[in-house]
Amino acid sequence: MAVYLVRLEAIPHNDNPVKAECVGAYVNCWVKADNMKIAFQTATEYVNNQGWEVISVEDQFEVQREI
Prior knowledge:
The protein is an alpha+beta fold. It has one domain: Ubiquitin-like (UB roll), CATH 3.10.20. The radius of gyration is 13 Å and the shape is elongated.
């Protein structure tokens, strides 16, 4: 299983308590998954469940460990 970084731009849902004071956010999700598709789905579902709507994907890639 690999680790992926999925960088998203999101806005708060209408029922999110921070909606009045926050117009948006950039979200970095580090996800351990079998492939990029699953990592992306996991990240976007998590962000959505936390009260945010993903409006764009800024970047996504498999993380490589440099030693």
